[in-house]
TrEMBL record:
InterPro entries: GHMP_kinase_C_sf (IPR036554), Mev_decarb (IPR005935), Mev_diP_decarb (IPR029765), MVD-like_N (IPR053859), Mvd1_C (IPR041431), Ribosomal_Su5_D2-typ_SF (IPR020568), Ribsml_uS5_D2-typ_fold_subgr (IPR014721). Belongs to the diphosphomevalonate decarboxylase family. Residues 10-181 form the Diphosphomevalonate decarboxylase-like N-terminal domain. This is Diphosphomevalonate decarboxylase. It comes from Entomortierella chlamydospora. It catalyses: (R)-5-diphosphomevalonate + ATP = isopentenyl diphosphate + ADP + phosphate + CO2. The gene is MVD1.
Length: 397
């Protein structure tokens, strides 16, 4: 019997102009446009296998080796409904196609990094789900079309359908058909731009993005100013900075936008705090590092972890600075940063180390060096699939 199956991976993305707020919570339509950098799947990714079979009696989902309910997950149901409807349309037009739209499916997905810890697992997770469904169903859609479906899983997921530099255009229409991701520039446009992720906490966060942003929409006057006055201009400036590979401008806008996002969280009533003492120390350290010219940019999502964007040539120095204040962090060196330098560079000569205390061993748990890279990838299911011959996970938690 023919096996209908697809296996794909998808990347995370870290926004430099943040999405925070929905004007429609069920279609997931945002109150402002946003822009992100897609990070390499060599370091962080979701991997998903989906099989359709006449032998299956119900739709089932395993996430990181644990079975989860599909019916209770309205967002996942929406992604399935949309992609099945599109498959049904193409089956209607071409009778020779196998009838996959009516078959039950088994979905097995794994993240190679902590889920729901503010490392954008919902972004890579839903991008991967929708991309794998589109492969299974052979949907004739481009990445922007697919982003409209992935957006309904998690807003930020729509940007993970593309590699490189990606805008999510907020759109205006009530049905969401113009609220989609577009690529501003591919990853090859600015290969010099790299990122360092500082994992301050890998625990599940207190206030989810979904709940937090709607409380902000309801209570923050500052958010209205951000939506109307700040983001439209900032989007234009950010796109120009990326096109011109103007790092100081890119960095300034990135840090200002992260600061404003956390300011609207503080302006929420009751306030939401995502950054902690370590996050704030990282801000002070990068500010000191930048005092004679902008060499690095920090940004924080809905959690304490920092992402630092910088040109490749500064990365060893940034790692040396971070290691000084945060001893004992494990370093994921898959880009070979340390093999290129036999010893770490010294701290910059005029760096004032009094900007922050030296923190206890392991306060920053892990530092991950990565770079901008491409969008979802298709894998060979026979070799890389997550389901066994019976259609059950090869690995359970
Ligand atoms: N591989 C996956 N496949 C399908 N769904 C996933 C996958 N990974 C995560 N999710 C969904 O995303 C949820 C986690 O999203 P959440 O927004 O809470 O955390 P996060 O994405 O890590 O943080 P943030 O988006 O704020 O950076 C999970 O509970 C699950 O429903
Ligand atoms: C701070 C952010 O990371 C918020 C991401 O929010 P989500 O995309 O996780 O929210 P939902 O659409 O409710 O699933 C900023 C960003 O990625 O732009």
């Amino acid at each position: 019997m023919t096996v209908f199956e697809a296996t794909c991976t998808a990347p995370v993305n870290i926004a430099v102009v943040k999405y925070w707020g929905k004007r429609d919570t069920s279609l997931i339509l945002p109150t402002n446009s946003s822009l992100s950098v897609t990070l390499s799947q060599d370091q962080l990714h979701s991997k998903t296998t989906i099989r359709a079979s006449a032998d299956f009696t119900s739709d089932r989902l395993w996430l990181n080796g644990i079975e989860e309910s599909i019916e209770k997950n309205k967002r996942l149901v929406a992604c399935l409904r949309e992609t099945r409807a599109l498959r049904a349309q193409i089956e209607e037009k071409d009778a020779s196609l196998p009838k996959l739209a009516s078959l039950k499916i088994h979905i097995c997905s794994e993240n190679n990094f902590p889920t729901a810890a503010g490392l954008a697992s919902s972004a890579s997770g839903y991008a991967c789900l929708v991309y794998t469904l589109s492969q299974l169903f052979q949907l004739p859609l481009d990445a922007s079309d697919l982003s409209i479906v992935a957006r309904q899983g998690s807003g930020s997921a729509c940007r993970s359908l593309f590699g490189g530099f990606v805008a999510w255009e907020m759109g205006e229409k009530a049905d969401g058909s113009d609220s989609k991701a577009v690529q501003i520039a591919p990853e090859t446009h600015w290969p010099d731009l790299q990122a360092m992720i500082c994992v301050v906490s890998d625990e599940k966060k207190g206030t989810s993005s979904t709940e937090g942003m709607q409380l902000t929409v309801k209570t923050s006057a500052l958010l209205q100013h951000r939506i109307k006055e700040v983001v439209p201009k900032r989007m234009e400036e950010m796109i120009a900075a990326i096109r011109n590979k103007d790092f100081p401008k890119f960095a300034e806008l990135t840090m200002q936008d992260s600061n404003q996002f956390h300011a609207v969280c503080l302006d929420t009533y009751p306030p939401i705090f995502y950054m902690n003492d370590i996050s704030r120390a990282i801000i002070r350290i990068i500010t000191e590092y930048n005092k004679d010219g902008v060499k690095a940019a920090y940004t924080f999502d809905a959690g304490p972890n920092a992402v630092i964007y910088a040109p490749e040539k500064n990365m060893a120095e940034i790692y040396a600075v971070l290691s000084h204040f945060f001893p004992g962090a494990t370093f994921d060196d898959s880009l070979g940063l340390l093999s290129k330098t036999s010893t770490l560079p010294p701290l910059p000569q005029n760096f004032d180390t009094r900007v922050s205390p030296v923190f206890a061993q392991g306060s920053v748990k892990q530092i991950l060096h990565t770079k901008a890279d491409n969008g979802p990838r298709v894998l060979d299911s026979a070799q890389h699939g997550l389901l066994n011959a019976e259609g059950l996970p090869k690995r359970l938690a």
